[in-house]
Model the fold of this input.
Amino acid sequence: MSTDSVSAVPPPTEPDASPSAPTRRTFIATTTAVGGVAVAGGVIGGSVLAGSQDAAAAVASPSSRVSLTVNGARRTVTVDNRTSLLDLLREHLDLTGSKKGCNAGACGACTVLVDGRRVNSCLTLAVRLEGAEVTTIEGLAEGDQLHPLQQAFIDEDAFQCGYCTPGQIMSGVGCIQEGHTGSPEEIREWMSGNICRCGCYVKIVRAVEQTAGK
Done:
C-alpha cells in the first residue's frame, strides 16, 4: 500500500466524541436519578414499605420489663434487652448527670452505684438489674444540702470542665464506702478508672481525703 493511500484513511472516531453520546458523568447521574425514582415509586406504591415493615418486625429485638429503685424511687420500664443502664438513666428516666464518655468502660464518666458498689453504667445491661438499687449523682444531695464529697469538690476546686465530675464523685463515694482511703496513693489506685482530661487529679484526691476524714 502506498503512503498516499494510508494517509487518505480517516482516523478512527472515539465513541465519546459524538455530541449525542452521553458522558460518563451524565450516565451515572441519570442512572442514579432513575433508580431513586423507581425506589420512591415502590415506597409510594406500598410494596417496598410493607416489605420493610414486615422485615423490621421479624428482626425486632426482644424487650423486657424491669423494676429497680433509682435514687430512692421505684421505677418500672420496658426496654430493649440490649439497653445499657446508662441509656436507661439518660434516655428513659431523664437522669442526664451520668455522662457518656467513651461508652466502653474506659473513662469512668458514667460511674454510678448499684447496691452500693461502683459500676460503669455503660457496660451494665439494664435488664440484669431487676430489684437493684441504683444511686446516681442526682441522688446524693438531700434537698439543698450537698453530699459532703460534692461540697469537698467545691472547696478543693477539684474540677475544671466538669464533664467527668459526676463520675469522679460517684467513684469517690464508693471508694470511701469501701474503705480505700488510707493514703493518697491508695485513693489514686482505687480511682484510677476515672479519667480527668483537665488533669485535676491532685485536687480530686484531696477532696476524697477531706471527706473520708470527717
Notes: The helical segments are 3-7, 24-45, 47-59, 85-92, 148-155, 165-178, 184-190, 201-212. Residues 140 and 147 are 6 Å apart (CA to CA).
